[in-house]
Amino acid sequence: MRVPLAVLAAAMILFLPAQADAAEKRRVLATDVVEYACKAGSETQNVKVRITLTMPASTAVDDQLSIGWQGAYEGTALKAPLAGLDDGTKLYAYAGISKYPGLTVAIGVGTLEAITPGADITLPATRVDLLTTPNKAGTGVVRPGAINFGTTPTSPAIRCEVRNRAALTTYTLKVPTSGQDDEPDPDATDGESPEPTETETPTETPAETPEETPTGGVATGAGGEAGPDGRMVVAAGLVITVAALAGLRRRRPKRAL
Question: What is the CA radius of gyration of the chain?
C-alpha cells in the first residue's frame, strides 16, 4: 500500500513542531516559588515570585550561554515606591551559580512597562535571557537568584534578596571539554621528568681490558699471560731448526775431481 506524498508531508509538518515543543519542555527542569525581601530605601516588602529557569541544551567553553528566566507573582505583587521610579527602570534578574570554578552568576535585563508610583510593578511577560560565559570546563549548581529594579545594575532602586535559597530546586550546569582538552597532552609533564622508555635507557658498554705487553716481548693478543712459557717454545723451535740445517750440510756428497 502506497501512501501519497501529500499525506506524508502533512504528517511531517504536524510532527516536527510537536517534537520541537517536546525538546523545549525537556529543557525546563522545574518551577520554584521564590520568596523575596525587597528593599526600597527604608521600606521592605515581602513578595513571592514563581520562577521557571530554562537551562541551555548545550554548552561549550568560551561560548556565551543563556539561561531562560520567566517570573510571575504568586499572591501580592511588588509595589513601586510612592516617590516613583526613574524613567527607563528595568528588571535585572540573576541566577546564582555555585560549585563552578570561576563562575558565580548569570544576569539578564528585562524591559518593564510604565511604572506608576504606588502601583504594582508588572514583571516582563516574555522570557529574559540570563547570560554568562564559562572560560573552563566544569559542573556547577544553578538556582534562581536576586531580582533588582533600576536604571543600571550597579545602583538599583529596589533590591530583592532571596529568603528561601536552601529550599529551591537546584539545576545542574555542565560544560564539557572540547577539542584536545578531552585527552591529556602527551607532552605535558606537570613539572615531573618523564620516565625513560626502553629505547631511551642507555646501555652500558663494559670497558675493554687494556692489552698488556710482556717486558722485552711482542704483543700476542693474550696479554701478559704468554710469559716465559712462550719464550721457551720459541727457543726450542730455533734449536730444532739449527740442528736440521747442520744435518743437511753433513750429508751433501763430495764433487768428483
Answer: 48
Query: What does the H/E/C string look like for the chain?
Result: CCCCHHHHHHHHHHHHHHHHHHHHHHHEEEEEEEEEEEEECCEEEEEEEEEEEECCCCCCCCCCEEEEEEEEECCCCCECCCCCCCCCCEEEEEEEEECCCCCCEEEEEEECCCCCCCCECCCCCCCEEEEECCCCCEEEEEEEEEEEEECCCCCCCEEEEECCHHHCCCEEEEECCCHHHHCCCCCCCCCCCCCCCCCCCCCCCCCCCCCCCCCCCCCCCCHHHCHHHHHHHHHHHHHHHHHHHHHHHHCCCCCCC
Q: Measured between alpha carbons, how far is 171 from 29 in angstroms, rounded to an integer? A: 7
What pLDDT does residue 209 have? 39
Among 100-114, 123-137, 151-165, 209-223, the minimum mean pLDDT is found in 209-223
Residue 151 pLDDT exceeds 70: yes
Interior angle at CA 147, CA 65 and CA 74, nearest 5: 110
72-98 pLDDT, tens digit per residue, is 999 999 999 999 999 999 999 999 999
Whether the per-residue pLDDT at 125 is higher than 50: the answer is yes
Residue 173 burial (C-beta neighbours within 10 Å; 0-12, 13-18, 19+):
buried
